[in-house]
Q: What sequence folds into this?
């Protein structure tokens, strides 16, 4: 019995002191260590450092930064200012649409009751914005007031003026073909003696607005390309001045994303600041023009007020300028970094 007892003691001594950790235990240890949270925090810190260090580099070279931002601001303010001028012109044409109305002069035998029924039937047309009925008495009163022949009209025994229906179609500045069809339909009506509309005036105004919109689009495209090239050239010069730093970063194994990050943030800051400065330039220009334009509108009996950038349009302007700065920087970096190789 003693040898058997010794064998068991030997087996007990040979057992390992600590058990080998399983895969599940290793996974629990990794989660408890917070590796994902640490990576996320490090990623955030890297971007924050690149964001503020790129701003610090711009501040460290104020002359070059101010010159670049000034050129970009002027280009962006030209594009955004032309957009704002076009928006004010569109506001003006909306007021001018009331003068593109169709006047229907009814026949003498048409009674006032029948004329009201005709006006009600015209209102049901979905392409009509508003309808106004002017009776013979109203037309005579207006003629006496505005013609200057009031005393001569009182001599007449009968009222020679017809009943008039003023029809204002929808989208008069965008649908000239619909206006012509509508005018022809009114002229064929048995109650209408004549229908009057100055189509040439409407067509001219339509052509002017179409040319203005196309010119604004082309100008914005050209100035947008100018912003891309200027921002890209600025980043190219910055990359050349830090060539040795980029080469050393590649030698130690830095990725292209790591090298690009501070330069992309530099492009962002250039576009962002240029957009803000451009907004101030356009706003100051509109404030200077505001009073003279409103005085001119008042002389012609109008109620025209200049439009300024709204909150949404301001955010859109700054977002577009910042995006152009980043895109210009990214295009230059993709080309330059591929041709920058360590010795």
A:
């Amino acid at each position: 019995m003693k040898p058997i007892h010794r064998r068991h003691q030997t087996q007990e001594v040979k057992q390992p002191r600590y058990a080998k950790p399983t895969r599940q235990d290793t996974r629990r240890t990794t989660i408890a260590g917070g590796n994902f949270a640490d990576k996320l925090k490090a990623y955030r810190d890297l971007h924050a450092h690149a964001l503020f260090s790129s701003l610090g580099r711009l501040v460290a070279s104020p002359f070059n930064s101010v010159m670049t931002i000034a050129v970009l601001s002027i280009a962006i303010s030209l594009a955004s200012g032309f957009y704002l001028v076009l928006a004010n012109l569109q506001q003006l044409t909306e007021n001018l649409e009331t003068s593109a109305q169709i006047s229907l002069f009814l026949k003498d035998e048409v009674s006032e009751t029948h004329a009201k029924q005709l006006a009600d039937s015209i209102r049901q047309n979905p392409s009509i914005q508003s309808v106004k009925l002017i009776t013979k008495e109203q037309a005579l009163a207006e003629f006496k007031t505005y013609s200057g022949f009031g005393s001569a009209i009182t001599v007449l025994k009968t009222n020679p003026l017809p009943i008039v229906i003023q029809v204002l179609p929808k989208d008069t500045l965008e649908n000239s073909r619909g206006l012509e069809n509508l005018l022809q339909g009114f002229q064929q009506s048995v109650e209408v003696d004549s229908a009057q509309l100055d189509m040439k005036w409407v067509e001219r105004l339509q052509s002017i607005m179409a040319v203005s919109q196309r010119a604004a689009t082309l100008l914005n495209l050209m100035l947008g390309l100018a912003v891309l090239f200027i921002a890209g050239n600025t980043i190219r010069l910055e990359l050349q001045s830090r060539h040795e730093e980029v080469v050393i970063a590649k030698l130690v194994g830095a990725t292209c994303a790591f090298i690009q990050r501070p330069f992309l943030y530099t492009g962002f800051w250039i576009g962002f600041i240029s957009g803000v400065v451009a907004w101030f330039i356009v706003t100051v220009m509109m404030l200077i023009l505001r009073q003279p334009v409103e005085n001119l509108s008042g002389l012609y009996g109008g109620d025209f007020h200049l439009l300024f950038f709204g909150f949404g349009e301001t955010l859109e302007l700054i977002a577009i300028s910042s995006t152009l700065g980043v895109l210009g920087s990214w295009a230059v970096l993709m080309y330059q970094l591929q041709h920058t190789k360590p010795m």
Observations:
- Strands lie at 102-106, 128-134, 164-169, 192-196.
- Residues 256-299 form the longest helix (44 residues).
